[in-house]
UniProtKB/TrEMBL annotation:
Its cofactor is pyridoxal 5'-phosphate. It comes from Cephalotrichum gorgonifer. PANTHER family: KYNURENINASE, KYNURENINASE 2. The gene is BNA5. The modification N6-(pyridoxal phosphate)lysine is found at K164. This is Kynureninase.
Length: 357
């Protein structure tokens, strides 16, 4: 079942099924990946991250730094956004240049959860790797949302959850990508002991051909599957398989094409709402980049201070599912898999009423 889900995830993340492993949850997988890919030395010990990632990412990175006996104040390089909540690619590249000699790892989001900004994954990855830095991506808000080509972009590793755009249900099983070059298992001599990238080892990551030999020589499954630790839940896999089967009736390219126009339509209606308002201080502003190439389906709407709770309550009372992210943001996501233009229009009418006369 896990292998079936990996095959069904290939188009969603742009990797071969052998580079994908379905296991655990997002933060656990981040820890498993950093256990293998974050190997600080006296010279290279820094992790470059964003200033305000989703809290669990910050916790994971900070705890890995502390685990290695390092000081987070010195080993965590946080990139701050500008006044419009945007972290430009140029700023990221400048930060890489500034810390290139002592950085071990970059871990950034594919899409920033608060602003909805889509990062330039291929450019940032190539730029950092050219300077000897390993690159990982948290794709929690990108997987199932935008087209990804992790193999072609040469990404070292990536992790994602499946309960957002992939629709597998609350707390559903997560996924990870490990580029094929990091999943190789080689036997270089006659000792019978394999050579592979060090990682946290577990029985379920062992090659099935010898797994039941029950000896103490770990021979990992080639590919991302060798990074597993424990067996996944069959119930969780069934839930994910059902969700992925819907994706497999279309393609991420077609979904992205629809998403671009759906999101543009939502943006147009919100622009119209602002233009018609007589308030001196706007009731809201969209902080997600206006360039469609720099965003997914998410539009982050920064409400005027003090409006968040009342607007959220009014949306809920009108049967609208739209989450809030403090301070003052609601995230509007016209997901193309199941959202119609009519749904976008209806949402905007509810939002008008929620914002008041």
């Amino acid at each position: 079942m896990a292998e079936d889900c990996a095959i069904k995830s290939a188009d969603i993340v742009g990797g071969s099924s052998s580079e994908i492993v379905i296991m655990s949850t997002l933060t656990i997988n981040l820890h498993l990946m950093m256990a293998s890919f974050y190997k600080p030395t006296e010279k290279r010990h820094k992790v470059i991250l964003e200033w305000k990632p989703f809290p669990s990412d910050h916790y994971a990175i900070e705890s890995q730094v502390v685990w290695h006996g390092l000081d987070p104040e010195k080993s965590m390089i946080k990139i701050r956004p500008d006044d419009d909540f945007i972290i430009t690619t140029e700023l990221i590249l400048r930060t890489i240049d500034e810390h290139a000699e002592d950085t071990a790892l970059i871990l950034l989001p594919g899409i920033q959860y608060y602003s909805g900004q889509l990062f330039d994954i291929p450019r940032i990855t190539a730029y950092a790797q050219a300077r000897g830095i390993l690159v990982g991506w948290d794709l929690a808000h990108a997987a199932g949302n935008v087209e990804l080509k992790l193999h072609d972009w040469n990404v070292d590793f990536a992790c994602w959850c499946t309960y957002k755009y992939i629709n597998a249900g609350p707390g559903s099983i997560a996924g990870a990508f490990v580029h094929e070059r990091h999943g190789q298992v080689e036997f270089k001599n006659d000792s019978g002991k394999p050579s592979y990238r060090p990682r946290l080892m577990g029985w379920y990551g062992g090659d099935k051909r010898v797994r039941f030999n029950m000896d103490n020589t770990f021979i990992p499954t080639a590919g991302a599957g060798g990074y597993q630790v424990s067996n996944p839940s069959a119930i969780d896999l069934a839930s994910l398989s059902g969700a992925l089967s819907v994706f497999n009736k279309t393609s991420m390219r077609d979904l992205r094409s629809k998403a671009l126009v759906l999101t543009a339509y939502a943006e147009h209606l919100m622009d119209q709402m602002l233009a018609e308002s007589s308030d001196e201080t706007p009731l809201f502003r969209v902080i997600t980049p206006r360039d469609p190439a720099q965003r997914g389906t998410q539009l982050s709407v920064l409400l005027r201070e003090g409006l968040l709770e009342n607007v959220s309550q009014a949306l809920e009372e009108n049967g609208v599912i739209c989450d809030k992210r403090k301070p003052d943001v609601i995230r509007v996501a016209p997901v193309p898999l199941y959202t119609r233009f009519e749904d976008v229009w209806k949402f905007m009418e509810v939002l008008r009423g929620a914002l008041g006369p």
